[in-house]
């Protein structure tokens, strides 16, 4: 069972309130199947747009660009750690999801907004940049890479700090699938099993790690970040 944060009728007008579905902490497959069901309904006109928000039990997902070198240990060793593996249809390479990471899957009809994949990806990044700014964390984009990073190193625009949020989408008939993963807190150990997003030189961080020993950093939970994520998403979409 899942909880509706707000509801709206099928066939909603673009400006009506978006339906938010909170799955809480769940297996990846549950959210994946719900996403595909809602996208299919959006494409054939029988359903409305929605945004699915959740955290996942430990899982590594393999996008369409995943290379053999992206997994740093055998699949059997990953399974022994209680981490699931899923091949998915989103763009991008391998990534890890686990408790403490906030996930947002927007199921949107870009025919009603802007039929531009680049615009959509940059808008998703801006949602995260604005959220981080709200919590006093400086996030940046890196030219040629997708996602959000901590502040740049020196004056080299091609270098960044650590990766704090990842993006991966698939768009069919201009209706979206998959979305954003934001590292709020929790263990990041699962990332040590992969080359995140296919890059061997990426260091991953979280909001809690960036805030350090501050009062907020010590107690930051996804429940505190979730309403801010919703607010920033509404701002841009």
Structure description:
There is one protein chain. The chain is an alpha+beta fold. The chain is built from 6 helices and 11 strands. It has helices at residues 28-44, 75-80, 117-134, 207-211, 215-219, 222-236, and strands spanning 3-6, 19-26, 50-56, 59-62, 84-87, 94-97, 101-107, 139-140, 148-150, 163-172, 175-183. The strands form 2 sheets. An 8-stranded mixed sheet has the order 1-2-3-7-11-10-9-8. It has a 3-stranded mixed sheet with strand order 5-4-6. Strand 4, helix 2 (75-80) and strand 5 form a beta-alpha-beta unit. The longest helix is centred in the middle third of the chain and has 18 residues, at 117-134. It is globular, with a radius of gyration of 17 Å.
Could you name the CATH homologous superfamily?
A: Bira Bifunctional Protein, Domain 2
Q: Please tell me the total number of domains.
A: 1
Per CATH, the class reads Alpha Beta
Kindly estimate the percentage of residues that lie in beta strands according to DSSP. Answer: 25-35%
Mean pLDDT: 85
Write a concise keyword list for the protein shown above.
single chain, 237 residues, BirA Bifunctional Protein, domain 2, 8-stranded mixed sheet, 3-stranded mixed sheet, 28% helix, globular
What is the structure about, briefly put?
The chain has 237 residues and is an alpha+beta fold. α3 crosses α6. The protein starts with a strand and ends with a helix.
């Amino acid at each position: 069972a899942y909880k509706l944060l707000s509801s709206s009728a099928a066939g909603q007008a673009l400006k009506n309130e978006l339906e938010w579905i909170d799955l809480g902490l769940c297996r990846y497959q549950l959210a994946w199947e719900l996403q595909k069901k809602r996208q299919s309904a959006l494409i054939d006109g029988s359903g409305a747009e929605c945004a699915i928000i959740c955290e996942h039990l430990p899982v590594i997902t393999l996008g369409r660009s995943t290379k053999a070198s992206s997994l740093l240990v055998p699949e059997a060793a990953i399974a022994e750690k209680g981490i699931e593996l899923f091949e998915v249809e989103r763009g991008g390479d391998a990534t890890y999801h686990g408790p403490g990471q906030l996930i947002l899957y927007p199921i949107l009809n870009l025919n009603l907004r802007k039929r531009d994949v680049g615009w959509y990806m940059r808008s998703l990044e801006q949602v995260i940049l604005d959220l981080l700014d709200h919590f006093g964390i400086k996030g940046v984009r890196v030219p040629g890479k997708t996602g959000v990073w901590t502040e740049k190193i020196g004056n080299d625009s091609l270098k960044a700090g650590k990766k704090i949020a990842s993006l991966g989408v698939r768009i069919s008939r201009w209706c979206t699938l998959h979305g954003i993963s934001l590292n709020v807190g929790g263990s990041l150990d699962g990332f040590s099993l992969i080359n995140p997003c296919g890059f061997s030189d990426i260091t991953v961080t979280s909001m809690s790690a960036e805030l350090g020993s501050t009062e907020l950093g010590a107690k930051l939970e996804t429940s505190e970040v979730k309403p801010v994520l919703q607010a920033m998403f509404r701002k841009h979409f």
